[in-house]
Amino acid sequence: MEIRALTPAEQKYTYAQSMQLEGQTSNIGHLRGDFASSGYGFYTTWFDTRPQWKTDEFKKELDEVINSLREDKGLLHNRYDMSAFAKHYPESAFAGSYCTEYGFRVDTEKHAFLFRCNPTKGDYNFYCYCFVKEWLDKHIQKAEQGIRFIDPNYKELFRIPDGGKIIITSSWGEKTERPCRFIDEYHTEIGNNIFHICEFAERMEQNGATYEPKSTEPQTVTKAPKHKDLER
Question: Which of 84, 82, 101 is nearest to 93 (CA)?
Fold first, then answer.
């Protein structure tokens, strides 16, 4: 069984997603676990997302992945081995919600298991988000084109990377920052709402608001294309 560090694009899928994104990426559910205060325990809880995809084949593969990583010096053997394991993969580190976390991926023939790890006492030490591999990879590949923002006449104004942010300025000058997620070529998730890109442009025009990419994003804004698109 091979394990590798998550790519930056994959890291976003180790957190809770909207129902729309869960469906788009075929998220089956996720496993949350910790090593107890001693660092040597192993306690887990499963959360269903799409139980219809929780097949016997999937459950067998999940057991095999977890049991393999539970072996001596494996990622899930204990909290101390998790910390040592992560140090061997410095490329796995990324900025989490409040601390550095570590991301890894394990694939089987049909499923992808994405791990977000935090070897800190007192926290949940890992989350394993489980997907139908083909659906997840297709969605990530499509999301590489970025999120389009247009005016009401369908003229493209700019694109931002999936997970990037925009600044909305109201008619009275108030600025609001909103994170954005790629849904498909014509829909995006802005904050907690999903919009058709033309619907968003029309609504902003009606409200007298403007919108622009957040300039402090570490990723660069992409240019517009020149061509004429368990409870077990």
Answer: 101
